[in-house]
Amino acid sequence: MLKKTHFFIFFIFLLAFLAGNLVDPEYLNRAIDTINNWELKIENWKLTIPHFPEKLFRLGLDLQGGAHLIYQADLSEIKEGDKGEVMEGLRDVIERRINLFGVREPVVQVQGNQLIVELSGTVDPAQAVKEIGKTPFLEFKEQKENFQEILENNKKVQETGEGSFEDPFQSTPLSGRYLKSATLAFDQLTSKPLVSLEFNEEGAKLFEELTEKNIGKTLAIYIDGIPISIPKVQEKISGGKAQISGQFTIDQAKDLSRNLSAGALPAPITLISQETVGPILGKISLEKSFRAGVFGFIAILFFMIIFYRLPGLLASLSLLIYIVFNLALYKLFPVTLTLAGIAGFLLSMGMAVDANILIFTRMREEAKEGKNFLICLEEGFRRAWPSIRDGNFSTILVGLILFYLGMSFVKGFAFTLVLGNLIGLFTAVFVTNKLLGIFSNLFQKWNFLW
Q: Domains of the chain by range and CATH?
């Protein structure tokens, strides 16, 4: 049993070592560089150790700086049942636009008839507002006369990296303003999902002429200058109705129909609020949060060691492992860290300490009855577990509710709180328990440490 405990602790410390170097690989990579510079050669083969991967923390708007924009959508001309679909379509189009001018991990959320846009990092708010404010544009394009030649040239450009790409399609008079609706449908024979299009009267005539002209060729459907579907024309299509088929999943066909509808339906948006957070302000907030976390952790260490002595020292070591695991997971997922998210992490750290205090307090009560340390350890964990379980599980439940129902920063707070509580349960109940078990003989020999 003791061997299993030692193996468990060794495994935990190994994970903590790897997690710590994921959080900050600078010192390990320096040591690796030093080793790689040694003249260790075996038959003309030089020893080369790869660097530990470097991953940056993903910082939110309030820590990295950026722009927070709120748009109001005008849905006065949209049917009540279509408003949700139009808002989601507008969100998708805006996300694509933002990605085009290099904003990292933009956040675009729908809240009623409003769109909340968060652009973290270095971005020109004026340019972002200009690009976002455009009405979604849907157009149908046909092949150029030298279609094959352009495709071959584009292939050479891709292979050699020389030259520039050319769009093999050219614009036609048919655009999104002639589209009446786009809905998800299913093939009657194969049951595969497809997108059903319906044009208005004028659009039906244009579509009929376009398909008659391009039988055996492909038409390209563009939204905001980006091709989203390139179906092949099998025959002339009359009546103003058409289908886009392909290797779609249900979700892909649903997204395509929603985006087509968003490009066709008039849903102008108006900027009603703009807030810019400078990178300097974000840096100051991050530094203050870091200092608060460090001072809080040091205060916890002093408290645990002064009041609980060696068990408190072991609990502090367990808490350090807890912090390293949390920070490593923030990089692995990755989690977008905001001030609210950091607050959730610090709160969960307090609950992790609280679990240890409940256990140690219960162990002291058992020790007053003259029981030996191993019995105190077993009874302390057993009797403290219901309080630890109920406190953490209720917090996790509230955190999950906040995550699924909340918006923006609330989600960040809820996520770090839930993740921190889960890791805190593990380190308090398993890691601290195993560490105390390893030092049980020492505790029994020197009671003054307890």
A: 2-46 (no CATH), 66-274 (3.30.1360.200), 278-449 (1.20.1640.10)
